[in-house]
Amino acid sequence: MNLAYRDIRHNLGRFLLTCFGLSLLLGVVLSMIGIYRGLVEDALTLVRTPKADVWVVESGTRGPFAESSRIPGDTREAIARLQGVAVAGSVTYQSVETLYGARKLRLYVVGYEPGRPGGPDHIVRGRSIGRSHYEMVADVRTGLSIGSRVELGRDTFTVVGLTDGQVSSGGDPVIYITLKDSQQLQFELAPPAARRELARGAGPGNTDIINAVVARVLPNVLPKSVAEAARRWKHLAAMSQAEQELILTRSVVERARKQIGLFTALLLIVSAVIIALILYTMTMDKLREIATLKLIGAPDRTIVGLILQQALAMGTIGFGFGALLISSVKDYFPRRVVLLPEDGLALAAAVIVVCVLSSALGVRLALKVDPATALGG
Amino acid sequence: MSASQGEMPLVHVRNVSKHFGEGETRVDALRDVSLKVHPGEVVALLGPSGSGKTTLLNVIGCIVEPSSGWVSLDGEVVYDGRWLRSDLRRLRLEKIGFIFQFHNLLPFLNCTENVAVVLSLAGFDKDESKRRAIELLEYLEVGHRKDAMPANLSGGEAQRVAIARALANRPRIILADEPTAALDSLRAGIVMDLLRKVALEQEAAILAVTHDEKIFDRFDRIFHLRDGRLDDQAPST
């Protein structure tokens, strides 16, 4: 006879309410893990999109994401001619803020050369950029649609295509424009400043500057050897794709990663304390029944089983509800929440361990109950 | 009196003493108590509050070990150093039935399950436990409430279900703690008649702690405890 099941059935409403409360808590823990994963995923999206093998940036920097990097626009031709390079493309990256109607839009602008690495890796609606000016491909998270016109700098751009899943490490949605447009946006002086420069004889200023060159190597060529060749130019630094990803995860999102990790650990501890208190209270409510069971000859394992099974049922149902809840609302979070099966399984295992450990208080209390307390007097 | 005094007693307590604490805080709950209860006997244990009734019940019920003395239950000497806590638990399960003042039915089990749980603990399979539990409930005339939860039973019905639970393992010794205290005189009489019936039909020994004067005449013998000592073992009539 399963006493745990029958006790739960008897107090079903209270038990389910407790499970619901626990599920909210575990849902928050799961969402924190998902936010952490999303943060890393977001940070890596931009660096993975060009499908590059080698990143060439300004010497002495770890750009273009961790630090700013400025290199001459003709660097791409030089890199493309290196032995073992299949194709190379110039890219620029910058954050802008603009208005779309009455709505403030914070965007991460990627400039690339159409037909070369650096552009969006897929289009979900519309087409790629076909003209050399004033067209853009925007991520669906911008809220823009095909045909939307957005002012960037002194020019107006038309959305011709939509992509998805493209955000910066700060969570801003990405838009893609041509390299020429992005260079104007990033490096061209405003007319009053340009006039002042001309007046002092400095010339119009060079806008053929890029932030990085991304290169793909030929099959059977080691990216390391291409990077070494690029580093021979003293004004350039080069790193492999793996090194660039490491910089992003270890530098750009490291603090946020640690913060979320610490918060998740704290939440798990709070969950453990709450589960322990719930189980302790549930056991306190049953002391007379436990004493009666002991008096009529129930072995300790029956009493321990009663508490442990209820703890596990509560943990399992709480986790199940929590996972279901977060899975159904994760797309409404302002930032990406990535729920991986292995994270879910790890948390489920942690919850089981927490339940077993937390039930120790209740089990200790139950085992100390004197069967004589079932008798009066 | 229904038992033959020549028969081996089911409960035999000899020179049992029990004290709690030491030195100035020492309390002598039982002092040199001896008694015998034979099969078929229904005996009462009377005494004022603090006289040691519950302690004696606990000693006989294998819950509290005496400080000195000798206790035999159904021919087996307990507390002689050979018994582990789990052995005493097993002895309680197999040989002793308990009836409580406030029935102490498990609120999350229905009447049948409350009786069957004892059989289940003793190793009976589910169907056999249920069948025997229903039989017992019918024997105690509460078979019509077999699916009811304890909260929906009257005091008399609940006490009869509690008696059914106490009888589930066919124990030879039944210890009752104020079994009729929560009942009116009519229902108290019915419960005592049931206990008498069980004692005769199952050749069980029934030892009840009570203050209930309206049922004193239902006992074969009454033991009076005062300050931990047994005063009198005279028949009640």
Strand order of the largest sheet of chain B: 6-7-8-3-9-10
Mean pLDDT over the residues of chain A: 89
Helix content range of chain B: 25-40%
Please identify the top-level CATH class of chain B: Alpha Beta
- Topology order of chain A in helix (H) and strand (E) letters: HHEEHEEEEEEEHHEEHEHHHHH
Largest sheet of chain B: 6 strands, mixed
Evaluate the radius of gyration of chain A: 30 Å
**Can you tell me the CATH topology of chain B?**
Rossmann fold
Low-confidence stretches of chain B: 233-237
- Rg of chain B computed from alpha carbons, rounded to a whole number of angstroms: 18 Å
Shape label of chain B: globular
Please state the second-level CATH architecture of chain B.
Answer: 3-Layer(aba) Sandwich
Q: Indicate the multimeric state.
A: heterodimer
Overview of the molecule:
- The complex is a heterodimer of chains A (377) and B (237).
- In chain A, 50% of the residues lie in helices and 19% in strands.
- Chain A is an alpha+beta fold and 377 residues long.
- Chain A has two domains: 3-43 and 255-374, no CATH class; 71-210, no CATH class.
- In chain A, helix 2 (12-48) runs antiparallel to helix 8, helix 8 (254-284) runs parallel beside helix 11 (341-368) and helix 10 runs antiparallel to helix 11 (341-368).
- The mean pLDDT of chain A is 89.
- Chain B has one domain (11-104, 155-232): P-loop containing nucleotide triphosphate hydrolases (Rossmann fold, 3-Layer(aba) Sandwich), CATH 3.40.50.
- Helix content of chain B is 31%, strand content 25%.
- Chain B has helices at residues 53-60, 85-95, 111-121, 126-139, 155-167, 185-201, and strands at residues 11-20, 27-37, 42-46, 68-73, 76-78, 96-99, 173-177, 205-209, 221-226, 229-232.
- In chain B, the strands form two sheets. Chain B has a six-stranded mixed sheet.
- Chain B is globular, with a radius of gyration of 18 Å.
- Classes of the chains: A alpha+beta (377), B alpha/beta (237).
- The interface between A and B is medium-sized, with 25 and 37 residues.
